[in-house]
Write a structure and sequence with these properties.
The structure holds two protein chains of two kinds.
Chain A (H helix, E strand, L loop, with lengths): L31 H10 L7 H15 L2 H18 L16 H15 L7 H25 L1 E4 L5 E4 L4 H16 L1 H16 L3 H31 L1 H16 L2 H12 L3 H12 L1 H12 L3 H10 L3 H12 L1 H17 L1 H6 L5 H10 L3 H27 L10 H4 L1 H19 L15 H40 L2 H16 L1 H16 L3 H31 L1 H16 L2 H12 L3 H25 L3 H9 L4 H30 L1 H4 L7 H11 L2 H35 L1
Antiparallel strand pairs in A: 1-2
Helix pairs in contact in A: 1-2, 3-22, 4-32, 5-8, 6-7, 6-18, 6-20, 7-18, 8-9, 8-11, 8-12, 8-15, 8-17, 9-32, 10-11, 10-31, 10-32, 11-15, 12-15, 13-14, 15-18, 17-18, 18-21, 18-25, 18-26, 21-24, 21-26, 22-23, 22-32, 23-32, 24-25, 24-27, 24-29, 26-27, 27-29, 28-29, 29-32, 31-32
Chain B lengths: L1 H24 L16 E5 L3 H16 L4 E5 L5 H7 L4 E6 H13 L3 E18 L19 H4 L8 E5 L8 H7 L4 E5 L3 H14 L5 E5 L3 H4 L2 E3 L7 H5 L18 E8 L2 H4 L1 H9 L4 H13 L4 H11 L1 H7 L2
Parallel strand pairs in B: 1-2, 5-6
Antiparallel strand pairs in B: 3-9, 4-7, 4-8, 4-9
Classes of the chains: A mainly alpha, B alpha/beta.
């Protein structure tokens, strides 16, 4: 979180958010005038007048700004609906739906049942992977949560109890001190103490164990893929789209295949977590390795390093800070998966949240949810501290000094065990000391429900009747062919044929697989969600950028929103806003507003002071400075924020299916409960493609905008 | 010099690898002893409703008392059949006729799973309204009166139709068909989850607001909230298959929902691997009333699952000792 968006927390765009493009004009697109000149210089056109007219329009259009293109596209779609009759243009005919899902289903069946490498089958291979992964998992669980049983022969079992809570709190504090001094030590220690005091210890340790193992494996796998990818452009061309898919296909979509291949239980949950959380590590590794200054590499070569030495002793140490950023991202994304993982067999905090909410113990659910947040914040701050830590040269220090922290940690663990044997309260936190605020929250929701429901109901029906339903009807009414063509045109204008081809192909896939209407409902919900998030994000972002104390408060809220499982606030929202699109919308906005705010702050703070001063000197009022200088300059950053907002909104699609929306997320969810691989993957790809289309278009637009600003 | 250093380093890495291997060998080992047929754990699936957790833990505790090792695995209700067929999972304690019948029959047809009989519990699910609605709608629970109260149950977005809050789409239930076949002026709104469904009921109940929704039992909701089931024409198999049956001669589904058993389903290999357990599972039997009391203690009074289960086993020792004879 915070400043760590270098590799982006969803890791989506490939370039770090540079506030400004270099001033030199990029050679990407010739500007309007030069095209007009070219047109004028053309020799006399002898073709038919109609073609000539068309060429004229074309050249006009080519130079027109994007907004005009969008208008043309809208006009075209409207014309197709109005005047072109064949109904297949408006609604994709069902007979034309390609049996893509059945194909996928057959493919999965073949993978699971038939594929064999001679000595062993594919399924045996995946099962042995699962078996291998189970070892570290059982160990970690044993150490943190359940204790370890060791067979000593003769039917005797030696039971080593799990780490005493006091030792874990102590080690967290020591880690904090090692990372950034006393402040962080206090934060990390009290975060873990919170878990004990609020009665979340056992579940929290189960979650921690699972997270640590999946982070370790995810980071190693990511590092390996990143190293391979950084070395070859050809591999990169394969890996990058795959990473995009891993981050945009909803996890629910690939849960079923994972369950089939890796069996039921915590290991499958871990594999799903790894798939979801690894991409940022790959991206950051690539970024880090590619950014190694050539001088360092050259000096390494001069010393006579072998290739392996060059990689491990030169490039990787040089890229350490990027790697740590990647690690931080892996941790945060893994924590996002806690709830989903608990649905397929990982216990811990996620399971507590789900179980509490099924009983509608909202307070209890919130407490478990907050425990996830607290753990996330502690792990985030710790890993950030190590990411930013400047290396200290301790070569000449004494052994004791060099290893002060690790020695102290070992002492605390041993001491914890020893004390725990004498005073059992230090081993297992006693239940009587636990505090709960659950009933307070339940009471509060009840109070709001009884006293403010009429007002809320008024807001709800207002939103539904004036905004949501008309927009939904409008989008569903749009003809699919027209929309695809319009998207293609805009893409063409922004970046040429290659992008247009991609966009048309992806949108075409959605139509061809028969998910058009569901996709439109997805676009409708996420679209409104993104609009609201953007507006809120702009207002709060600007406010936070101008006021220091405000920004501190907002940062805490944003951290919470980002890591609190949306399930926790989804149920109270349903109580107050009923089942339906408004509840879904609120959930989307609560999650997707975070990057909108963060990037706005970032963009406005990055407006160079010189430019601002120049504006003031030339007599701008504060109002003018903001609207005419700061905002336009911050726009590229804000757009990147909106891009992230779109991604997060789309990632919520599956969650909102839990309150009863009828979109692609619902299809994915249905597929999950029916164990239908093909349906889930196809609908999941649909979501991913919507994300990809939006991402590419916004990126292209931002790029052109940046070069425009740079040139201006 | 450098070479040598590297070599030492490498040996160090090897040392750690060996340590790791050793650690693996001496790791949490499988238990031994006991007089049972196999020491492999019997994997029982857990879902996310308390009733199922209770039956599973009752069975698990009983099997453990016989010396079997038990492992609980959280799995999806429908997706678990894949695991039961492959032998990844061994026992599912609650398959409801109302929601899981098709999936179960499909799975049984493969021959890789086995039906271990009914649990004795009785599932019912139907349209339901809270008792306080009786004042406004005196003619309920007769379904024919539903159209009379459309206005009461309407919401702005469904108006002029009434709003009926239905279970998640994945649970089936044929309510769209029912509304059409019986000519009800209601719009079927699906909740995404059981939690969302009852969140709305809780909210409405707190305000004594009109609500018409899907409720099922055994569940804590009909225990905590007083209310009544709508009485539709009674379900028969023909009603769902034969359009001519019932009040609407052109359409199927012109009746209420089926009520039915809750069954235990196991991996087909369980019988040979753990014959003793197999017998005990087959014998397992519990009544709705006992179950309802336990659910209420857990979900409403906030008691711990383990305590409630242990309590039941203590007070009903004579009953379950019969099963394991």
């Amino acid at each position: 979180m915070g400043a760590n968006e270098i590799c982006s927390f969803a890791g989506f765009y490939k370039t770090p958010p540079v506030p400004f493009a270099p001033i030199s004009c990029p050679a990407a697109e010739p500007d309007a005038e030069s095209i007009e000149e070219m047109v004028e210089m053309e020799p006399v056109d002898r073709s038919a007048p109609l073609i000539r007219a068309w060429r004229r329009i074309w050249s006009e259009l080519k130079s027109a700004p994007v907004t005009r293109w969008i208008w043309v596209a809208v006009l075209m779609t409207w014309v197709t609906t109005r005047f072109i009759d064949p109904p297949w243009m408006a609604v994709y005919p069902e007979d034309w739906v390609l049996p893509f899902k059945d194909l996928l289903n057959r493919l999965m069946d073949w993978l699971i049942n038939d594929l064999s490498f001679g000595v062993f089958t594919f399924k045996e291979m995946t099962r042995s992977v699962a078996w291998l992964l189970e070892w570290p998992m059982t160990w970690a669980l044993g150490i943190f949560a359940t204790g370890v049983d060791i067979a000593t022969g003769g039917g005797q079992m030696l039971h080593i109890p799990h780490l005493p809570w006091i030792a874990v709190v102590g080690v967290a504090a020591i880690l904090g001190h090692a990372g950034k001094g006393w402040n962080l030590a206090l934060l990390a220690g009290s975060a873990f103490l919170y878990l004990a005091v609020f009665g979340q210890w056992e579940s929290a340790m189960m979650t921690l164990a699972a997270i640590l193992i999946s982070v370790a494996i995810g980071a190693l796998v990511g590092l390996a893929i990143g190293i391979v990818t950084a070395g070859s452009r050809r591999i990169e061309a394969w890996v990058l789209p795959l990473l995009d898919l891993m981050q945009t296909v909803p996890v629910f979509a690939y849960l079923i295949p994972i369950l089939f291949l890796f069996g039921f239980g915590p290991v499958s949950a871990m594999i799903a977590t790894i798939i979801y959380a690894t991409p940022p590590m790959v991206r950051c590794t690539m970024l880090g390795l590619r950014a190694t200054p050539p001088e360092i590499i050259e000096s390494g070569q001069m010393i006579g390093c072998t290739r392996r030495q060059l990689l491990w002793k030169v490039k990787i140490p040089a890229a350490m800070s990027e790697l740590m950023v990647g690690l931080n991202q892996v941790i945060m994304l893994s924590l996002n998966m806690v709830i989903i993982a608990s649905m397929i067999g990982a216990g811990g905090l996620g399971y507590d949240v789900l179980a509490a909410l099924r009983r509608l113990k909202i307070g209890a659910g919130l407490e478990s949810g907050i425990a996830i947040v607290v753990m996330a914040i502690a792990l985030d701050r710790l890993s950030q501290a190590f990411a930013c830590k400047a290396p200290v040269n301790l070569r000449d220090a004494t052994f004791l000094k060099r290893h002060a922290h690790s020695l102290l940690a070992v002492a605390v663990i041993l001491g914890g065990y020893a004390l725990g044997m004498i005073f059992p309260v230090l081993m297992n936190y006693p239940e009587t000391w636990e505090v709960t605020t659950g009933p307070f929250w339940d009471g509060m929701i009840k109070f709001i429900n009884i006293n403010c429901y009429d007002q809320l109901e008024w807001i709800r029906s207002g939103l539904l009747l004036t905004l949501l339903m008309p927009f939904k009807r409008f989008l569903i009414g749009l003809p699919w062919l027209g929309v695809i063509m319009a998207l293609g045109l805009v893409a063409y204008r922004l970046k040429g044929f290659k992008l247009a081809g991609l966009v048309v192909a992806l949108a075409g896939f959605i139509a061809v697989t028969g998910f058009w209407e569901k996709a439109m409902i997805t676009v409708y919900l996420c679209g409104i969600g993104v609009m609201l998030s953007t507006v809120i994000g702009l207002i709060i972002g600007v406010w936070a950028a101008k006021s220091n104390s405000m920004s501190r408060v907002i940062n805490i809220i944003l951290d919470t929103l980002q890591t609190l499982p949306s399930f926790v606030y989804l149920m109270p929202v349903v109580m107050l806003f009923r089942v339906g699109d408004v509840s879904a919308l609120i959930a989307i906005v609560a999650y997707a507003v975070v990057p909108a705010i963060r990037y706005t702050v970032h963009g406005i703070l990055n407006v160079p002071a010189t430019v601002r001063e120049a504006a003031v000197v030339s007599g701008c009022t504060p109002y003018q400075t903001f609207w005419k200088v700061e905002l336009p300059l911050a726009l590229p950053d804000i757009m990147l924020g909106i891009n992230q907002t779109v991604m997060l909104a789309l990632s919520m699609v599956v969650i909102t299916a839990l309150v009863g929306t009828r979109d692609l997320g619902q299809e994915v969810y249905i597929a999950l409960t029916r164990a239908d691989n093909g349906l889930g993957l196809t609908a999941g790809l649909g979501v991913a493609f919507i994300a990809t289309i939006t991402d590419r278009l916004i990126q292209a637009w931002t790029e052109s905008r940046r070069s425009h600003l740079g040139a201006a | 010099m450098k070479r040598k250093e590297c070599k030492i380093k490498r040996r160090c890495t090897h040392f750690w690898l060996w340590m790791l291997l050793a650690a693996m060998i001496f790791s949490p080992a499988s238990a031994l002893c006991g007089s049972v047929e196999s020491n492999d754990p019997i994997k029982i699936t857990l879902h996310d409703w308390s009733g199922q957790l209770i039956t599973s833990h009752l069975m698990g505790d009983i099997l453990e008392s016989m010396g079997y090792r038990i492992k609980y695995v959280t799995a999806d209700y429908i997706a678990q059949f894949a695991g039961l067929e492959s032998g990844d999972l061994h026992l599912a304690m609650e398959i409801w006729e109302t929601t899981g019948k098709q999936a179960m029959l499909k799975s049984l047809a493969t021959g890789k799973t086995e039906d271990l009989g009914e649990t004795g519990l009785f599932a019912k699910e139907e349209w339901w309204y809270p008792a306080y609605m009786k004042e406004q709608c005196p003619d309920l629970p007769d379904w024919k009166a539903l159209n009379k109260y459309v206005k009461v149950f309407a919401a702005p977005e469904t108006a002029p139709k009434g709003r009926y809050l239905c279970a998640p789409v994945t649970w089936g239930g044929f309510d769209e068909e029912r509304v059409k076949a019986l000519g009800l002026d209601y719009e079927v709104v699906h909740a995404g989850t059981d939690a969302a469904l009852f969140a709305e009921l809780t909210s409405a109940y707190q305000r004594k607001a009109p609500i018409l929704l899907w409720v099922y039992t055994p569940h804590w909701v009909p225990i905590k909230y007083k209310g009544e089931w709508i009485q539709f024409p009674k379900y028969t198999d023909e009603c769902y298959e034969d359009p001519t049956w019932g009040g609407n001669p052109e359409m199927t589904h012109d009746c209420g929902k089926p009520e039915g058993w809750i069954k235990k389903v196991a991996w087909a290999g369980l019988k040979d691997k753990w014959p003793g357990a197999y017998k005990a599972i087959k014998a397992f039997h519990i009544e709705n009333k006992e179950m309802g009391e336990m659910i209420a203690r857990i979900d409403l009074d906030g008691e711990k699952l383990e305590d409630v289960v242990a309590d039941y086993l203590k007070t009903h020792e004579a009953v379950w000792k019969e099963w394991i004879k």
